[in-house]
Design brief:
By secondary structure, this protein is α/β, with parallel strands linked by helices. Among the domains are: 26-189, Ribonuclease Inhibitor (Leucine-rich repeat, LRR (right-handed beta-alpha superhelix)), CATH 3.80.10.10; 257-306. Helix content is 36%, strand content 10%. It contains 6 helices and 13 strands. The protein has helices spanning 11-26, 79-83, 202-210, 234-247, 251-303, 305-323, and strands at residues 39-40, 45-47, 66-68, 90-92, 114-116, 124-125, 138-140, 149-150, 163-165, 187-189, 195-196, 215-216, 223-225. It has a 9-stranded mixed beta sheet, with no helix packed on it. Helix 3 (202-210) packs across helix 4. The longest helix is centred in the C-terminal third of the chain and has 53 residues, at 251-303. It binds 2-acetamido-2-deoxy-beta-D-glucopyranose (3 copies). One 2-acetamido-2-deoxy-beta-D-glucopyranose binds at residues 152-153, 175, 177-178.
Length: 324
Amino acid sequence: MRLAPQPSAQPLRLTVLLLLTAGVITSPVLSSGCPDRCVCDDQLVVQCAGQHLTTFPVNLPLATRQLIISNNRIVELPPLALNYLSDLVYLDCSNNSLTEISESTFGNLRKLAYLDLSFNTLIRIEDRTFGPLASLVMLRMTDNPGLSEIHQDAFAENANLQVLDVSRNNLTVVNITSLIALPALRSVGLSGNPWSCECDNEDLCLWVHLEGFKFQDEGQTVCGSPADMQGRRLGEVGIQLRTLCHQTLGSWDYLFFVVIGFVIFAAGTVSAWLMGVIMVLYERYIKKKDEQLDDDEEESSEMGRTSRSRSDHGNGNLKTSHTV
Ligand SMILES: *[C@@H]1O[C@H](CO)[C@@H](O)[C@H](O)[C@H]1NC(C)=O
Ligand SMILES: *[C@@H]1O[C@H](CO)[C@@H](O)[C@H](O)[C@H]1NC(C)=O
Ligand SMILES: *[C@@H]1O[C@H](CO)[C@@H](O)[C@H](O)[C@H]1NC(C)=O
């Protein structure tokens, strides 16, 4: 659409056209042409796969709806160039050399439904990376051998996400809190990662156990650690972890039991000792009372000795008569 200025009867219109043309030519990202080594069709598909590109193509048509830049060696997605493509629906960046995606990379791609970042060298995914992709339906991010960290809220705003594939990366744990909240999610690929099957990843294992149908290649979704769990399926260890992680007691629990045990023991000892003391005191009291009674008796018997000796005598008589 190179607009060669033509003699025209409408000078105003010509000026406007000239200005527009100048704007298109001077801005490196605004273009209606087709990038070098790419094929553009009238369906707004730009195909640049396998062209040994090392940089993101320039001169992309503004209205591009599908961009395929797979099988190149592109190291970076420049936010500025990418965000002019606000009609982009489909973006395939697989098999390149992307190591990093910044928070602004996809800042303006609100119509993007398909994104493929597989076969790159990504290391981590930050919080806001996919945040602006409100229409994202399918995200493929497999085969990034160094990808070991995905922020817990990385997909929190992708309410339309249906398919997420993070197979064959280097992931050990994933916080599933925001994932299980995604209303449309129906397929998740987790296989080929060295998953941790310890309590820090208990929720993920339990999720695979409960909703096995959601997980592609569930048979290859296995534990990488600890050593005694290696190779076991996440879905298989889910319940086991659930029991294991909630039965084990923390050091505070043990301390509690020790303290409670000691308190019970001490209370028992003290009450036994108290009982002993009370018994001894009671006995002494009783004895004292008896002695007092005896003394009183003695006193009274001293007064009436004669009657007592008589009765003694009588008793003796009674005894002898009884024995005989
Ligand atoms: C990646 O792209 C290269 C060409 O750049 C190609 O030879 C290779 O087969 C591709 N790998 C995959 C897994 O598609
Ligand atoms: C995968 O992560 C582990 C640490 O969790 C690291 O030691 C290893 O080098 C990583 N592998 C790759 C290919 O980056
Ligand atoms: C998981 O992420 C949520 C927020 O999405 C956070 O509230 C929670 O504490 C995280 N859980 C762990 C174990 O880090």
